[in-house]
Amino acid sequence: MTGPDPMTAIIEATITLDLALGRWRARADPPTADQLRASTDAVAAIDRLLGDLYAVRAMLVAERRQASDATAARVDALLAGAGHGLPASDVTPSVDGERHGP
Fold it and tell me: I need a surface site. Which of 31, 51, 68, 86 has the fewest CB within 10 A?
């Protein structure tokens, strides 16, 4: 990604792509050097977009996995408390997988 905020990088690459495609679509026959450069700029913007989108996807998948792991730990803690004769309301779930009760 090109900056600290992945969505900003995606927006910037999308704007670049839009401008480059506009220059390319208005091409003459044969295309001018600027219009050929526009097609190269469009391809480069698409490549940046793909990279940024994959980076956002990877970040989202990792965050979702962490959230699922934390939920599983809370469920395990609740089930562990229920198996020891403690009412579920007396068990405080924790991410460390340990049962915390009164």
Answer: 68
